[in-house]
UniProtKB/TrEMBL annotation:
GO terms for molecular function: imidazoleglycerol-phosphate dehydratase activity. InterPro entries: IGPD_sf (IPR038494), ImidazoleglycerolP_deHydtase (IPR000807), ImidazoleglycerP_deHydtase_CS (IPR020565), Ribosomal_Su5_D2-typ_SF (IPR020568). GO terms for biological process: L-histidine biosynthetic process. It is an enzyme of class 4 (lyase). It comes from Natronoarchaeum mannanilyticum. The gene is hisB. Its EC number is 4.2.1.19. CDD domains: IGPD. The lineage of its organism: Archaea, Methanobacteriati, Methanobacteriota, Stenosarchaea group, Halobacteria. This is Imidazoleglycerol-phosphate dehydratase. It comes from the Archaea.
Amino acid sequence: MVVGSVVSRMTDRAAAVVRETAETEIDVTLDVDGDGEAAVDTGIGFFDHMLESFAKHGLFDLTVECDGDLEIDDHHTVEDVAIVLGEAFDEALGEKRGIVRYADRKVPLDEAVAGVVVDVSGRPLFRFDGEFSQASVGGLTSHMAKHFLRSLATNAGLTLHAEVTGENAHHEIEALFKATARALDDATRIDERRGGDTPSTKGEL
């Protein structure tokens, strides 16, 4: 058994990660410069829907296969998928040369509004402001949406601030995933004016 993750670069700004532990077996591929195509199977229907929405609105090509210990609960599956997805972003972006780096997006879904500010900084930090209106949605424990973002930020090397308001947890969580996707799409785009330089006075991220 592989304990932990095996990460490999596929092509420019794409990566594949395989992670196997006693709790989950996960296989993820990510193309940052994709068309929004997704094939996802985690065993949690609503979580699959959120990951598909994340890919669609971020224009990332994403495949996720996860066999997790759902007989216990959804925690390990959601956390480990976020870890692997974060590792895939980190590997796909490499030295982060030429990227925009910062982005700020707000996304509404009916009565809910989510806001995400991201810095692809290489310095993981996560802050969250908000509450979920219901305890669970379609097999996903609502607070695991917050934990997903924290684990993604930690493993992708993101400074990520997120907030949400609303009355329906389905809408709140979906708005968060969409806002995160749009912010990451903006922040990871190549800014041609940089000429391939790293967007930092330090010379690296």
